Amino acid sequence: MTQWFIAAERPAHLTCIMPLEGCSDAYRETLCRGGVPSHGFFGFISPFLYGSQQREDVIAMLQKYPVMNEYWQDKRADISSIRCPAYVLASISTGLHTVGSLRGFEDIPHDKKCFRLRLHSTQEWHDLYQKHSVADFKKFLDFYLKGENNGWEQTARARISANIDNLLFAAWPVPEINNITLRLSVDGTLQSSFDLVKSGQSSYISDAKAENDDADPEELSFTYTFTQRTRLIGNSKAVLYMSCPDHSDLDVFLILRKVDKDGRVLRHINIPFAELKAVGGDGIEGVEDPLNLPRLNAVQYVGPSGILRASHREIDASISKHNFPHHKHTNEEKIQPGQHSPQQSIKWVLEGSDWID
């Protein structure tokens, strides 16, 4: 993760970088996605981060400075200053690194053809130690560090795993994508035609306990049925008009789920089941059905998600793109109870996936 920041300083000796599963904006991508503080992972990992000197207590800083300021701005890498070649790797499933890796690749000035992106569909550690991955890393490093004429420059600019490994594209975002707009209908469907939308209001009890199941009792769901085999690759965003009758703020969580033709909500197993069983361990022994594996992000991926706190809804036009909106997070703009307010929530990158069986 530090490679983004080091490369932005352009040290004379730096030949290339290889940020594998990186992070480039600690506030927006991990600690406070959408303005909603998340202490869980950093609270868990902090006791294991050792060094010869003292380290920052980012959880305490988030509690002291809940909105964007100079401290958090300093933790957003100035990727537009990077000029050296880069191999950027990201997994579709991690809850920590996907957005930062893709934002990093998009923000690098692409006037030189020496940047490569690989987006894979397994758990990050599983991919890092595969023989084909190690060979790919070595090929990149040998080309730039040793000057070997090994054909690396012929590698596609973007390689995306979408059930079929390494679909090859000339750029990211993928230029061949057809963007579509789907509108929420009060009958619980998503419609591509405005004429088919049924207007009205839908509601749910937001303080009901989340069951972390495939269909929590208090959530709103909207379904779209693909009529032909379709692959989704790229970013998505949602524009919602919401209100809360009792409070001046609310946290909104969105997720895209895949459902098969029989209506069963599906999950993606991040590590091949046979390999998990061979390794064994807590929660793995005796499991015969992959869907009974531990419901941990490292093992199962349920789909791309979006998070936004209503008071953090202001868009930062200076760093946003048409496919990648960013919020300012510099102040809290409360809403009046019962007042509708547009909220634009970035979702994490959609994995390339065959959504129709």
From TrEMBL:
<dbReference type="GO" id="GO:0008239">
    <property type="term" value="F:dipeptidyl-peptidase activity"/>
</dbReference>
<dbReference type="InterPro" id="IPR029058">
    <property type="entry name" value="AB_hydrolase_fold"/>
</dbReference>
<dbReference type="InterPro" id="IPR013736">
    <property type="entry name" value="Xaa-Pro_dipept_C"/>
</dbReference>
<feature type="region of interest" description="Disordered">
    <location>
        <begin position="323"/>
        <end position="344"/>
    </location>
</feature>
<dbReference type="Pfam" id="PF08530">
    <property type="entry name" value="PepX_C"/>
</dbReference>
<protein>
    <recommendedName>
        <fullName>Xaa-Pro dipeptidyl-peptidase C-terminal domain-containing protein</fullName>
    </recommendedName>
</protein>
<dbReference type="InterPro" id="IPR008979">
    <property type="entry name" value="Galactose-bd-like_sf"/>
</dbReference>
<feature type="domain" description="Xaa-Pro dipeptidyl-peptidase C-terminal">
    <location>
        <begin position="138"/>
        <end position="346"/>
    </location>
</feature>
